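Can't paste images in this forum, so I'm doing it all in text. The chain is below; anyone willing to post the predicted structure tokens underneath?
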Amino acid sequence: MLLSKISDYFTKKWEQKVRDHCDSQYERIQVKPGDLHLYWKCHYVATHYAIENDHEKLALVTQREKQHTLPVIHFVNFDGKDFIDNSMGHWVNSYEYRFVRWVPKEEFYDTVYILGDTKKFFQKMATFFQRRFGDTEN
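Text version of the structure:
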């Protein structure tokens, strides 16, 4: 019981640090709904649509339910004027998106590595105690 409370405390502190970083460093963007895939491999879905539609780049973004959850690393399409989420369909209206960086065409097949590197970046924000006693593997 006590260990669970300690873990929850350190996990929540780390999650707040990540949310604060995203809110202060990344610009909030509007994303339009695309197709609905509800597929955990959003980087594959976005890459597929980008190649099929001859897009020049993808957008690496963070996505989270309005104000409450840990941001998720996510990929969305960009058709030259609009950001489009082809993983979440109309559920985009339930989320807040923040732009992290462009993924150019040359890196389309590297999205799995970009995803992993971005996850490691957020995990490194945790202090020693947050890593040791909290859950920073989300």
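The helical segments are 2-25, 42-52, 111-123, 128-133. The mean pLDDT is 90.
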